[in-house]
């Protein structure tokens, strides 16, 4: 059995680690939440006491963490991966942006630990089903080593050698996802105000040229039934939009659309709370329009 270290067992990390256990790997897990750690141990993982402990026991360490600051600490802090005796490669599954990725790469390079970025797309559902899109950057030979692990999680796309380039790809993906969720919310609220049935609207959009990842996945699963439980926090969306704006501004490219989208997400985080599910972003549009979209109590289903 191959030892694989896994740090950060949240909405995304937990099902990924679970898949790796089911795939026959010896998963050495760490999370600051002991309840979460107990849950993964009950599924067959072995508990570690710190990120360093994980890196003392596994050559390959994966991390799925909530912010660039946490990733930096986990990778290079005093009880971080950098201090581990066995680790050869660190794989960042989190979305941290290219600046943090380059910093982590440079710090780990000083200890001859290879850093690979592998941010993911596909949500909690993709994580559970093993259908994530994984965008990978780092040394090609190291990508070849971890490829079987990534293939248990979804479909890996090799972006290039340049540290952080997979993070840039991921931010490009997420700004579009951020964009179409607010755009679809605004449009469906308009239709409901005009008297249209939102479930019918979503069906028509999905059969027509207005289809988006929001109308296809997020509305049927979490907005129309009003469960708002898609599994991605509004605060994480704000993080990704800010990271995108940082990168785009550093490059000196136009950001007119992204800045407008960014303002809407900042307001959503203030109104709904950073821990709210990002599908709850529609509530601000509903409030401004004086309507409610969907809801099983109205006889509408996804
Ligand atoms: P999450 O907040 O659900 O999970 C983060 C986990 O990290 C938690 O279990 C937390 O206890 C743990 N943690 C925090 N600090 C830690 C530390 N110092 N050491 C060890 N564990 C620590 O977040 P998530 O939704 O799973 O997202 C993780 C990453 O994946 C983020 O970068 C996010 O942007 C990205 N992502 C999320 C989704 C999604 O749909 N949720 C999709 C694609 C990418």
Automatic annotation (TrEMBL):
Organism lineage string: Bacteria, Bacillati, Actinomycetota, Actinomycetes, Mycobacteriales
Family affiliation: Belongs to the HIBADH-related family.
Keywords recorded for this protein, A-Z: NAD, Oxidoreductase
Protein's name in the database: NAD(P)-dependent oxidoreductase
UniProt xrefs under SUPFAM superfamilies: 6-phosphogluconate dehydrogenase C-terminal domain-like (SSF48179), NAD(P)-binding Rossmann-fold domains (SSF51735)
Protein origin, superkingdom: Bacteria
InterPro entries tied to this protein: 3-OH-isobutyrate_DH-rel_CS (IPR002204), 6-PGluconate_DH-like_C_sf (IPR008927), 6PGD_dom2 (IPR013328), 6PGDH_NADP-bd (IPR006115), HIBADH-like_NADP-bd (IPR029154), HIBADH-related (IPR015815), NAD(P)-bd_dom_sf (IPR036291)
Occurrences of domain 6-phosphogluconate dehydrogenase NADP-binding (ranges): 3-156
Chain ranges of the 3-hydroxyisobutyrate dehydrogenase-like NAD-binding domain: 164-283
């Amino acid at each position: 059995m191959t030892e694989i270290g896994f740090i950060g067992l949240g909405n995304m990390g937990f099902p990924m680690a679970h898949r790796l256990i089911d795939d026959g790997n010896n998963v050495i897990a760490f999370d600051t939440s002991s309840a979460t750690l107990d849950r993964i141990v009950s599924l067959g993982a072995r508990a570690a006491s710190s990120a360093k402990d994980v890196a003392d026991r596994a050559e390959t360490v994966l991390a799925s963490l909530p912010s660039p600051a946490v990733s930096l600490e986990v990778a290079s802090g005093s009880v971080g991966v950098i201090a581990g005796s066995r680790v050869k490669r660190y794989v960042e599954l989190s979305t941290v942006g290219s600046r943090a990725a380059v910093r982590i790469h440079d710090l780990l390079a000083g200890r001859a630990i290879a850093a690979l970025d592998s941010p993911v797309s596909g949500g909690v559902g993709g994580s559970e089903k093993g259908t994530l899109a994984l965008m990978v950057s780092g040394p090609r030979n190291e990508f070849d080593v971890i490829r079987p692990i990534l293939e248990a999680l979804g479909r890996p796309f090799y972006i290039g050698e340049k540290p952080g380039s997979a993070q840039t790809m991921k931010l490009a993906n997420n700004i579009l996802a951020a964009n179409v969720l607010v755009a679809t919310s605004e449009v469906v609220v308009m239709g409901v105000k005009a008297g249209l049935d939102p479930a019918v609207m979503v069906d028509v959009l999905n059969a027509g040229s207005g289809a988006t990842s929001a109308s296809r996945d997020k509305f049927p699963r979490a907005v129309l039934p009003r469960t708002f439980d898609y599994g991605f926090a509004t605060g994480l969306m704000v993080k990704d939009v800010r990271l995108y704006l940082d990168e785009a501004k550093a490059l000196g490219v136009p950001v007119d659309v992204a800045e407008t989208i960014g303002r809407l997400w900042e307001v959503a985080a203030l109104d709904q709370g950073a821990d709210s599910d990002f599908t709850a972003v529609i509530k601000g549009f509903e409030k401004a329009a004086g309507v409610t979209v969907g809801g099983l109590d109205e006889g509408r289903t996804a």
